[in-house]
User: What shape does this take?
Amino acid sequence: MAEAEEKEPVSMEESTDESEEDESEEEPKLKYERLTNGVSEILQKDVASCMTVHEKFLALGTHYGKVYLLDVQGNITQKFDVSQVKINQISLDESGEHMGICSEDGKVQVCGLYSGEEFLETFDCPIKIVAVHPQFVKSPCKQFVTGGKKLLLYDKNWMNRWKPSVLHEGEGNIRNVKWRGHLIAWANNMGVKILDMISKQRITNVPRDNISLRPDMYPCSLCWKDNLTLIIGWGNSVKICSVKERHASEMRDLPSRYVEIVFQFETEFYISGLAPLCDQLVVLSYVKEISEKTETECCARPRLDIIQPLPESFEEISSDALTVRGFQENECRDYHLEYSEGESLFYIISPRDVVVAKERDQDDHIDWLLEKKKYEEALMAAEISQKTMKKHKILDIGLAYINHLMEKRDYDLAARKCQKILGKNTDLWEFEVYKFKEIGQLKAISPYLPRRDPILKPLIYEMVLHEFLESDYEGFATLIKEWPGDLYNNAIIVQAVVDHLKKDPQNRTLLRTLAELYTYDQRYGKALEIYLTLRHKDVFQLIHKHNLFSSIRDKIVLLMDFDSEKAVDMLLDNEAKISIDKVVEELENRPELQHVYLHKLFKRDHHKGQRYHEKQISLYAEYDRPNLLPFLRDSTHCPLEKALEICQQRNFVEETVYLLSRMGNSRSALKMIMEELHDVDKAIEFAKEQDDGELWEDLILYSIDKPPFITGLLNNIGTHVDPILLIHRIKEGMEIPNLRDSLVKILQDYNLQILLREGCKKILVADSLSLLKKMHRTQMKGVLVDEENICESCLSPILPSDASKSFSVMVFHCRHMFHKDCLPVPNTAFPVQFCNICSAKHRGPGSTILEMKK
Assistant: This one.
């Protein structure tokens, strides 16, 4: 700790080597302040000898026999002149209402701080220690112990008199004592003892490890972690003892409790004080080192370590070297460590200084991160603990982080952090934007400027756009595309772009951007002109989105030149807005585009453009012959004579054949196939389609002197014409290629036909028999006749009301019923009767199936 004015708190450095202090990246666990105010005044004239800590106040004893009560800031609240010599120890009960004091001249004083109660006695030897009962304020607990050459217990009896009793003697001076609950622990020259006040039995003796050290120079440090855990530090040895209950089966003559050493280890330096910190230990160590100048051993700065105990060793968590006043002249016995349990405050007492160590809170953690320029971590820590922070604000840390990044010239990251740190604060946003402008880095912050909630002043966005317009056309175009048009004054930006286009009128990027600006400004006509000039892909989207069909009525050719597929689809989808006639008229001078439009129209609907089908014949013939024949087949509005004329002029054989066939001139069509195409297969196929015997006769006559044609006919004619007709006409001696194979095929086809006929005959016979049996079963079934049925002729009930009378009923298969008398007398030529209603044919569905008589 560097020397400073006494009224100011002083920070403690973490490393023992000053040259390493700035390089250390490990965050300290504790922070330090020198206790000033009244303490500074006391230690200017006197020397501290001991101190005890209560959660409400402090009690400081000096070498001149004074005891001062101080508040936690070090201000003096009360003073006691106890003796003329050194105060050895001060003890307070848990309530802080009673205090015990002992001094080097043998005086012992126990008094009430808020009452007149007092005990005062002088012994014939120095009294090193005193400890009042933790519950001294309660009447049954008026006890305290003192230690010089022996350990005495003072107990106040019913007569209000103090009665002493010896607890221990004979092992040298009592060096330290700590009272917790019902247990008293003390140290003498031989070791540490623990007394159980309930059973009045001593339950353990922990011997001193290093007997070579003088116990007066290297005193024992005792500390109760809780009611059953004692921490012992002596020399360089640390032991953690646990008081446990003995099992009833092990009692015999032994005490009911025993002590187990759970941790034991040695440190590098001599221990001056101990205190618990959760499951860790705070250790104040006295350090000696070799002087580089004199090469002799000298006193170094004391250390305050936080360690994690292990069964036989420890792990060092942190280590701080403390620059207390006069450390060069101090001994191990001059240092003391006291602590306040409730607040984790640790007081390091030396003759000329009192230092307070505290656990570092989140504000301290953030301070350290900021000091080490770890702004990202500091910002995260602040966000996590924003409810518990007292000193810092997230915004201040964030702004410091942005400034740090800008100093490092990491402008992109600084701009990115603005989004998170500045949030919706428009004033801060505008302030930071101007800072970026001053260093010429508006481009860096442009992607992160807010565009919705909040929205900055239009001037901010215009300033950024002008920056891009001066140096980066592509970046400018990107911002115009990404930013909503209401962020800036559109007219100002349009004028700026127009001014730049005067210098570079063919710049496509600026033209495209200007079109987008016109779109934002709802000047769609101008935007459309630019898009068409640039042949930009968004032109169709613009037309659709803003319904600009009235504006493109005279620009259809331009749209078709740009992308005929999209243009045609758009025109056909919006036929009600731009009529077919208007499109055809506009494309009159561009027949190739006219054909594309009419062709797609025909594909969608064969009848909509029927008035242009005659025109389309020429267009197909000129620009799209492969689709001419499908068009002729599908169109019902095409003039066949005109089509035939065009196809004959252009010698389109296939199309001419189709037209001749469609016009009924099949013989001419077949002749053209044979004479022009010389394709026997196509001729045969055509003859099959027409299924005309005369055509087959013409085909045979034409082919009879052409062996290849005869082969083709022999292979394909079998199922349509009797092959004998062809074979009889073949001249003798004519060589016909593959004749044998063709004849074999004819025979195979004939055999196949015979097999198919026989198979069909079998199927028909089986089906007929099955149906006959089914009909027989149906006709054999009975028919229910009751009083609800009527005669279909006379419409009276079929059954007579008087069942005793004779009657005769006819029931037909159609389920119609008649009185026999109501039916006509059967003809002698046809004795079978039929239902008059259903059928007049012999044995039809109405033939009789049942005659009932009675």
Summary: Confidence is low (pLDDT under 50) at residues 1-23, 841-850.
